[in-house]
């Protein structure tokens, strides 16, 4: 497995040539866990955001002092490096604690963290991922530290495993296109054609996608088509896309950058957060959420052997707080896991909310969270997708 690290905008970026799932990570998932995930999916699907203020306890003064004494922490994350570097800089400004950001696709990054932990190399203090199944299994192995941040009380009960992991935000995924690389007719097709718009032969050689082996968000996206909504879509649908010979990425982040730059006309798996980031940078990017719309939870947990355990706890508290989550709204269009934190731009018709092509998703697909096929650690959908796409 070839891996390298390269500096990027004040953080660290992980590149990898891994294309598999999570080697050596096969644990049985209990019936109790399946029921817990089912409850999570049902509650999260509704997602009523009231915006009402919730009481929020401040972090302990002794914890703040101890965290400042440590002075730094290392954050393994799956979100775009520039967005995350800006987000964590708000934490640094508030507490004077620097954050070393290491970015990679969820599964390869999580595999790397597991390997490091198992051989006693405790590099990451906090780990972010889009697959709660893996976090739960790592906790069973004793690799996830238990800590209940005061701010965690404000996270929706369906979006946390108290003391273990907390959802930072919820991300819808749709279709994105570069408005300068499509005709008015194609623009209309994308906006009105639903998911079938991706199968049109006109996209041959002009589109891109990402392997479901890259991480939890890509896997949950593909799972809707080959798993939960198989009767509606299934292998025949994916085969139509494969026939168009899309460029396949091992990570979504560079795919997004390249559609923004005009190297591709259209891409799938378009997350609201990353599209919002490209829009704010001035990229000629548009996106739409066909129904049903896959969505994923981005969660984070503390490493049990964190070298900077106090800084990790303080960061977990800040990330789950209304202040920390509100910082995301300055950067992207994610939905908060808190009821009291909403994006003011939506009410004020700011940024992409003012555009006539934009519409919120109306039918979020989170049913995979209680689907035994999804929580199967063998992740059979990866092999099926690879076969369809000739990988």
Short description:
With 391 residues, this protein is of the alpha/beta class. It has helices spanning 31-46, 61-70, 81-95, 106-118, 132-140, 184-192, 216-228, 234-242, 252-260, 272-280, 309-320, 322-328, 344-347, 372-375, 380-388, and strands at residues 3-8, 11-16, 72-77, 98-103, 126-129, 144-145, 160-161, 165-178, 207-210, 247-249, 266-271, 285-288, 293-303, 335-336, 364-365.
Strand residue content: 15-25%
The total number of structural domains is 2
Question: What's the order of the H and E elements?
Answer: EEHHEHEHEHEEEHEHHEHEHEEHHEHEHH
Class from secondary-structure proportions: alpha/beta
CATH superfamily of the largest domain: Periplasmic binding protein-like II
Low-confidence stretches: 1-53
By DSSP (H or I, 4+ residues per run), the number of helices equals 15
Q: What level of helicity do the residues show?
A: 25-40%
Rg calc: 20 Å
Report, as a whole number of angstroms, the end-to-end distance: 17 Å
What is the third-level CATH name, the topology of the largest domain? D-Maltodextrin-Binding Protein, domain 2
Main sheet? 15 strands, mixed
């Amino acid at each position: 497995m070839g891996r390298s690290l390269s500096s990027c905008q004040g953080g660290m970026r992980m590149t990898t040539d891994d294309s598999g799932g999570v080697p050596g990570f096969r644990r049985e998932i209990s019936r109790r866990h399946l029921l817990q995930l089912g409850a999570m999916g049902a509650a999260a699907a509704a997602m009523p955001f009231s915006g009402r203020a919730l009481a929020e306890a401040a972090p302990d003064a002794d914890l703040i002092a101890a965290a400042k004494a440590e002075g730094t922490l290392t954050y393994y994350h799956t979100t775009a490096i520039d967005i995350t570097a800006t987000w964590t800089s708000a934490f640094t400004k508030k507490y004077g604690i620097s954050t070393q950001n290491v970015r990679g696709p969820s599964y390869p990054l999580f595999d790397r963290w597991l390997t490091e932990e198992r051989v006693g190399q405790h590099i990451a203090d906090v780990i972010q991922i889009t697959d709660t199944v893996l976090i739960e299994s790592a906790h069973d192995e004793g690799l996830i530290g238990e800590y209940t941040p005061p701010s965690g009380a404000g996270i929706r009960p369906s979006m946390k495993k108290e003391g273990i992991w907390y959802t930072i935000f919820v991300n819808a995924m749709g279709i994105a296109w570069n408005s300068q690389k499509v005709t008015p007719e194609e623009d209309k097709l994308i906006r009105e054609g639903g998911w079938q718009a991706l199968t049109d032969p006109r996209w041959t050689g002009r589109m891109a996608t990402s392997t479901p082996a890259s991480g939890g968000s890509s896997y949950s996206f593909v799972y809707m088509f080959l798993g939960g909504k198989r009767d509606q879509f299934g292998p025949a649908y994916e085969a139509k896309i494969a026939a168009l010979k899309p460029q396949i990425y091992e990570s979504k982040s560079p795919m997004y950058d390249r559609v923004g730059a005009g190297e591709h006309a259209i891409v799938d798996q378009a997350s609201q957060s990353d599209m919002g980031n490209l829009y704010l940078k001035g990229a000629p990017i548009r996106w739409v959420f066909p129904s049903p719309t896959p969505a994923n939870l981005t969660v984070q947990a503390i490493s049990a052997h964190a070298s900077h355990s106090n800084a990790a706890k303080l960061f977990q508290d800040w990330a789950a707080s209304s202040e920390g989550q509100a910082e995301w709204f300055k950067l992207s269009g994610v939905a908060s896991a808190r009821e009291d934190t909403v994006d003011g731009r939506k009410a004020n018709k700011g940024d992409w909310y003012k555009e006539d092509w934009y519409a919120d998703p109306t039918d979020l697909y989170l049913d995979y969270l209680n689907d035994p096929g999804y929580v199967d650690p063998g992740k059979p959908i990866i092999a099926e997708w690879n076969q369809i796409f000739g990988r």
